[in-house]
Design a protein that fits this description.
It is a single chain. This protein is of the alpha+beta class and 293 residues long. It has three domains: 96 residues, no CATH class; 158 residues, Jelly Rolls, CATH 2.60.120.1440; 34 residues. The chain is 37% helix and 29% strand. The protein contains five helices and 17 strands. The strands form two sheets. Strands 3-2-5-8-9-11-12-15-16 form a nine-stranded mixed beta sheet, with no helix packed on it. Strands 4-1-6-7-10-13-14-17 form an eight-stranded antiparallel beta sheet, with no helix packed on it. Helix 2 crosses helix 3. It is elongated and about 85 Å long.
Length: 293
């Protein structure tokens, strides 16, 4: 028998229009073919779920015919088992997707790929890469925002441990706007980790500066704090950076630069010392000219 004939029998049976011959034909099919029994139960359960969900909004139809006695012998236990399985699976999925670590991350802007395929949502614990020329902006499960540079590779950890949010960054960089709340927000890189509480900061992985004999192929971590403060753990050392601070850390934890304000002050000091030296030299030249006279 083709599938269309079976579906027609189901339609007539559920609509209360099946003749005795059609009911007997349907009974034989259900008794002989397990796949058709499953299809029958699916149809019944679907109608039950639709009526629960939409109630009186569904168009009025004739009542579903009560199964004949011979059908009822196998239908009742089979349907009960299927309904129990349906409820169990539904409850499990609802529990799984309500857990913060399994929630999907929302992509607000840009393009990312997971497993080589473009994606609009990213599951926690799934590696992703930013593609295209624009940054990718994500809303994280705790409400914070993360903006990843093009070509960045990262994942939002499924089990952040003591942190409420933990990001593992292996390439590129990102800016992070962290919402206030309990627990810490952490970005982990091959060079070191940056931990924040209610702040805004950026982390960028870049090649170590030139001039170091052993720096070839090694990464440095550039940390810029725009609001609040962060703790940087790199090379077995910890340091607190406040707003406006910018540091570059090597994999040995050594700082490779100062923030802009400190660098400007140092440059101004050097310029002032240079001016004094020039004034001293001018004085010496003038004294020499007087001696020559």
């Amino acid at each position: 028998m083709d599938a269309d004939r079976f579906e027609m029998l189901l339609d007539r049976y559920q609509g209360g229009e099946a003749t005795a011959e059609e009911t007997a034909e349907l009974e034989k099919l259900l008794r002989d073919e397990p796949t058709k029994r499953r299809r029958f139960v699916e149809r019944v359960l679907l109608e039950v779920q639709l009526r629960k969900a939409f109630g009186s909004n569904l168009p009025m139809t004739r009542p579903v015919q009560t199964p004949a006695r011979s059908l009822r012998r196998w239908f009742v236990p089979f349907a009960a088992m299927a309904a129990t399985l349906l409820l169990t699976v539904s409850a499990f999925l609802a529990y799984q997707w309500s857990r913060p670590e399994t929630l999907a991350l929302e992509l607000l802007a840009g393009n990312v790929t997971t497993g080589g395929q473009e994606a609009q949502r990213i599951a926690a614990g799934e590696w992703f890469e930013v593609v295209g020329a624009s940054p990718a902006v994500l809303r994280l499960t705790d409400g914070s925002r993360a903006e990843f540079e093009p070509t960045s590779k990262a994942l939002i950890q499924r089990d952040p441990g003591d942190a409420r949010q933990a990001i593992e960054l292996t390439q590129g960089g990102g800016k992070f706007q962290v919402v206030h709340g309990g627990g810490v927000f952490q970005v982990k890189t091959p060079v070191g980790n940056v931990t924040a509480l209610g702040t805004a900061f950026s982390v960028k992985l870049q090649p170590q500066r030139k001039g170091k004999a052993d720096a070839k192929g090694k990464l440095a971590m550039n940390v810029l704090v725009t609001e609040g403060s962060v703790r940087v753990d790199a090379g077995g050392k910890s340091q607190i950076l406040g707003a406006g601070k910018n540091r570059v850390f090597g994999d040995d934890g050594q700082q490779n630069n100062r923030d802009d304000g400190e660098q400007n002050n140092q440059n101004n000091g050097k310029n002032e010392q240079g001016n004094k030296n020039n004034q001293n030299n001018d004085g010496k030249n003038e004294q020499g000219n007087q001696n020559n006279r």
